[in-house]
Amino acid sequence: MPVDIDIAKVARLARIAITEEEAAEYGAQLGDILEHAARVQALPTDGVPPTAHPLPIANALRDDVIEPTLDREEVLAQAPERDGDFFKLPPFLEDS
Amino acid sequence: MSAYDVVIGIETHVELRTASKMFCGCPVDFTAEPNTAVCPVCLGLPGALPVPNARAVEWTIALGSALGCDIAAESVFHRKNYFYADLPKNYQISQFDLPLCSDGKLDVEVDGVPTVVGITRVHMEEDTGKSTHMGAGGRITGSEGSLVDFNRSGVPLVEVVSEPDIKTPEQARAYATELREIVLSLGISDARLEEGSMRFDANISLRPPGQQELGVKVEVKNMNSLRSLQRALAYEIERQTKRLDADEPIEQATRHWEEESRRTAPGRSKEESSDYRYLREPDLIPVAVSRETIEAVGSGLPELPAARRSRYREMGLDFEAARLVSAGEGLGGLLEAAVAEGAGAASVANWLTGDVMAQIRSLGTPVEETPLTGARLAELVAMVDGGELSATAAKDVLAGVMAGEGEPRQIAEERDLMQITDSGFIEEAVDRVLAEHPDEVERLRGGDGRLTGFLVGMVMKATGGKADPRQVSEMIRSRAGA
Q1: Alpha carbon B14 to chain centroid distance?
Q2: Which residues of A touch B50 (CB under 8 A)?
Q3: Contact A52 B83 (CB under 8 A)
Q4: Could you tell me if B214 and B327 lie in one domain?
Q5: Do residues B348 and B284 both lie within one domain?
Q6: Most distant CA pair in chain A: distance in Å?
């Protein structure tokens, strides 16, 4: 059973510009994936604990210790644009 | 009071004051030069892998425990996806359906009326970079744009989400105040609202009394003091009440509090930001917390503000003094030390909430960093209570102590501020003043009580202000036979 996907919205959320042909193609592919997921979802899983992660381990933590940082010039050299010691971006308004 | 039922929930973000960031070893340092406390992880460079900070996990458990939450045996991280220029990975690592702590509560009190505010969850996440907008002609290149400093990117954040149990702006403020005091007592954050190390966002909706369904929710942001939190909510209640009264719809939106004009204004909302497409963070494995760890963190908690306040009440402080001493950094320690030296708790609290707090404010240093100790405070209080020092002189002595001039008694002697308790000397002065003012003495005997004050003043002048006015006053009345 085909799954209905608003492919234009998915593309917009991911900031990907796609053509109508591509939308049809990706829509079909995503639909296949969702159909597969629906089949898995239909399996009886009563009594099976949910899996949080495929690896049977936990707590890969680090101590609260300061490590070396990058050189600012090297960092800002990667920026499309800089302004003094800052990354410069096209204007956006809302302060976080 | 609104004619509608008001429903408020508060989301609080607390920046932890760990040494390093949440998922990398960059320092948490708000004084660092822009873009110097950064590495591939917090810049979101391809291939960089996050590793959670163990202390941040522990502190989140501590806050959850202090709020009476259940601590999850296993909790996982999620990616919260949105595009924003201060978010270099285009997702924030946060927690979603399996937060570290959930289902707690916080007791608050407004004008003696207690309320319980449920805590939905306490979870871990990371802060974003910091952006500054420049208009055209801005800083260096002279063109319009936004400047981003990623030093804050990846700083550990704890988010505390309350249940929508809050009904008034005053309760909201009391909730925020109490939560901040708990955070401070745990020592996990500077919790400075003005600087953004503790931030409150409020969700508020109104509905007609009796209606089950909730009204349209408005999120209010950008309140950087406890007072503005209260004001912003009061403003929103008024604004929404007017619209509802006029049958106008409330728009579901994020609004920003503007402190100068004291109003909220619609913010430019993040486009379709509600669709965060949470997904399990594949780069991180779960955090498992053993029962032993939960118990150890729980039993290692310091005394929480509510318990401290009630202990101070039992020591004899009134409600307000208990609140002030408990909340004031270092004041509780001084109170307890001074009382241990034998001083009366209420007298000590008077000094702490009055002159000591005023001195700290004018010195601008934490009380722990001044030479004031419990023993010195106890001595000062004893000298005043024993009539050796007038209340006015004691203020000077306190200033001297806090300026590092030495012990109270020594300062009082050096500054010649000790009251004369030698009754022979005072008697002599009283007799002389009475003899010099026969008319006034006559009127005093005739029942004009105001003359006592005048004669006390004359004696104080004659003794250079060093007599105890109470002792002088008694002596005048008995000598004059009034």
Answers
A1: 13
A2: none
A3: no
A4: no
A5: no
A6: 60
Burial class from Cβ neighbours inside 10 Å (0-12, 13-18, 19+) for residue B480 reads: middle
Does pLDDT of B481 surpass 80? no
Please answer whether residues B368 and B331 qualify as being in contact, where contact means their C-beta atoms are separated by less than 8 angstroms.
no
Q: Sort B56 into a burial class: Cβ within 10 Å, 0-12 / 13-18 / 19+.
A: buried
Identify the domain containing residue B373 by its residue range: 303-414
Instruction: Look at the pTM and tell me if it is higher than 0.90.
Output: no
Does residue B281 share a domain with residue B311?
A: no
**Boundary-marking domain end, from B414, B439, B470:** B414
- B222 plus B325 within the same structural domain: no
User: What's the mean pLDDT in B140-144?
Assistant: 61
The span from the CA of B36 to the CA of A75, in Å, is: 9
The reply to whether B330 and B352 lie within a common domain is: yes
Residue B430 falls in which region: left (phi positive, over 0), alpha (psi -120 to 50) or beta: alpha
- What are the pLDDT digits (tens) for A47-95? 988 877 788 899 999 999 999 999 999 999 999 999 999 999 887 654 4
**Partner residue facing B267 (CB), from A55, A63, A94:** A94
Contacts of A49 in chain B (CB under 8 A): none
Q: Are residues B395 and B439 in the same domain?
A: no
The verdict on B319 touching A (C-beta cutoff 8 Å) is no
Using an 8 Å CB-CB cutoff, list chain A residues near B277: 13
Q: How far is B96 from chain A (nearest CA, A)?
A: 12
Q: Which residue, B414, B433, B449, sits at the end of a domain?
A: B414
Are residues B471 and B427 part of one domain? yes
Whole-number Cα distances in Å, A28 to B212, B277, B440: 43, 20, 108
Find residues 72-131 of chain B whose CB sits inside 8 Å of chain A.
Answer: 74, 76, 81, 83-86, 98, 128, 130-131
Considering only CB atoms, A64 lies closest to which of B18, B43, B285, namely B18
Q: Mean pLDDT, chain B, as a whole number? A: 90
CATH number for the domain including B467? Answer: 1.10.10.410
Q: Per-residue pLDDT tens for B245-274?
A: 999 999 888 899 998 899 999 875 544 546
Cβ contacts of B370 within 8 Å, gap of 6 or more: B359, B360, B363, B402, B404
Residues B281 and B230 in one domain: yes
Burial class (CB in 10 A: 0-12, 13-18, 19+), B325: buried
Per residue in B326-354, pLDDT tens? 988 789 999 999 999 988 999 999 999 99
Chain A residues inside the 8 Å CB shell of B76: 52-53
Asked if A58 and B280 come within 8 Å (Cβ–Cβ), the reply is no
Report how far residue A22's alpha carbon sits from residue B304's, in angstroms, rounded to the nearest whole number.
59
A51 at interface of B, judged by CB pairs closer than 8 A: no
Reduce the DSSP state of residue B115 to 3 states and report it: strand
**AA identity, residue B339:** V
Residue B264, classed as helix, strand or coil, is strand
Domain count of the fold of chain B: 3
